[in-house]
Design brief:
With about 400 residues, the protein is an alpha/beta fold. Helices cover about 35% and strands about 15% of the residues. It has a 7-stranded mixed beta sheet, with helices on both faces. It has a two-stranded antiparallel ribbon with strand order 6-7. α1 (about 15-20) crosses α13 (about 370-385) and α5 packs antiparallel against α6.
Length: about 400
């Protein structure tokens, strides 16, 4: 049985597939205690270490779990906030640097393979190069300051009525022009994040390949796109493999994508059940009236494209996000979906029991890797290791 370390474990979406394929997840690290409770409950045989991976003591505690055994695989998805298309995409956000701690653990434990998951936005995000000359640093700092000015102005603009936006629009336009002028020098001090990741692993002796996967292609009723990086030790004769789709959009050759209705139709009349996470949100009358007027494919609030969006029942949903309660509107009922309905969209089995408050469960679901995608990835890792 192959041994595994899972970093940034969350509630266990990525780990789920590896548990299902009989990998032994010896140890898991998760920052937040309430989220870690879900992992502990569903995978009681795994040692769950709660705390910040950047902390030296946490790294030591993780390492101690592998004092007497080898670590075969490391899993994990460093937080995606800094790379997300819907986030602020701050190139110097500390959360965007956490892949360095992932690299550290690979360097320390020397697994045969690793799997790292992240958002699609990581493919076009750039960070400062590892080493900059004084001249390059001046350029990098100037560019970063302009980026931050633009973000700050855009945030201020959102707070204003349309009539009061003209002045701030002009300021944004000026900053954008200054950024555009500097773009010709961008390659002097920045590099694509994916290339930076590949370079880091190359330095410590690992070959890396990556691929963008659509979760709907693996039987998940959700069009969630995620980049999967897989690494193997150089000269190990391990051939990196990615999973083959089991479904497609039109149902040609393969079965058709699973729709929202297929996934959650049987839950729509279910009585509230806290333990099962079938928890209904109590909307006020004004909001219910707004929901009633919201058609399929529209959001209750026209400012948002995804929050409070009424899903098409005949297609997979869009990406399930944390959204602080601004979750999908049911295709038929005049309410938001329950955590259990969202768990179905993330392909969590009904036997998976979430711990914590409703808001914590929504956060856990928004950050999780869909279980059927993780199971497909685990299968491809098993194939790679079996061919050694």
């Amino acid at each position: 049985m192959y041994t595994v370390l899972e970093l940034f474990g969350g509630c266990g979406g990525l780990g789920y597939g590896f548990h299902k394929k009989n990998f032994n997840i010896v140890c898991c690290n998760e920052l937040e205690e309430q989220i870690a409770k879900s992992y502990k409950y569903n995978f009681p045989e795994t040692s769950v270490i709660i705390g910040d991976i950047t902390n030296k003591k946490i790294k030591e505690d993780i390492h101690n779990n592998f004092k007497d055994i080898d670590c075969d695989i490391i899993l994990g998805g460093p937080p995606c906030v800094a790379y997300s298309m819907s986030g602020l995409r701050n190139s110097r956000d500390p959360r965007g640097q956490l892949f360095n701690d992932y690299v550290d653990m690979v360097k320390i434990l020397k697994p045969k393979m690793f799997v790292m998951e992240n958002v699609k936005g990581i493919l076009n995000m750039k960070h400062d190069k590892e080493f900059l000359t004084e001249e390059e640093k001046v350029l990098a700092d100037s560019y970063y300051d302009l980026e931050q000015q633009k973000l700050k102005l855009e945030q201020e603009k959102k707070k204003l009525d349309k009539e009061n936006q003209e002045e701030i629009k002009e300021q944004i336009s000026i900053v954008k022009k200054n950024i555009l002028k500097m773009n010709k020098d961008l390659d002097k001090f920045r590099i694509f994040v994916y290339q930076k990741i590949i370079n880091k692993f190359d330095e410590i002796g690992y070959d890396v390949e990556f691929k963008l996967h659509n979760s709907a292609d693996f039987g998940v009723p959700q069009k969630r796109e995620r980049v999967i990086f897989i690494g193997s030790k150089k000269n190990s004769n391990i051939k990196i493999k990615f999973p083959n789709p089991t479904n497609n959009k039109n149902g040609d050759i393969l079965p058709k994508w699973i729709s929202v209705k297929e996934a959650i139709e049987d839950l729509k009349e279910l009585e509230e059940n806290q333990e099962f996470s079938q928890i209904y949100t109590k909307h006020n009358e004004d909001f219910i009236e707004k929901i009633k007027k919201t058609k399929i494919g529209e959001s209750v609030n026209k400012k948002y494209k995804e929050a409070f969006f009424r899903c098409n029942p005949n297609e997979p949903s869009g990406t399930v996000k944390e959204n602080h309660g601004g979750v999908f509107i049911h295709y038929e009922k005049n309410r938001v979906m329950t955590p259990r309905e969202l768990a179905r969209l993330q392909s969590f089995p009904d036997s998976f029991i979430f711990q914590g408050s409703k808001s914590s469960i929504l956060k856990q679901l928004g950050n999780a890797v869909p279980c059927k995608l993780s199971e497909a990835i685990a299968g491809s890792i098993l194939d790679s290791l079996s061919d050694m």
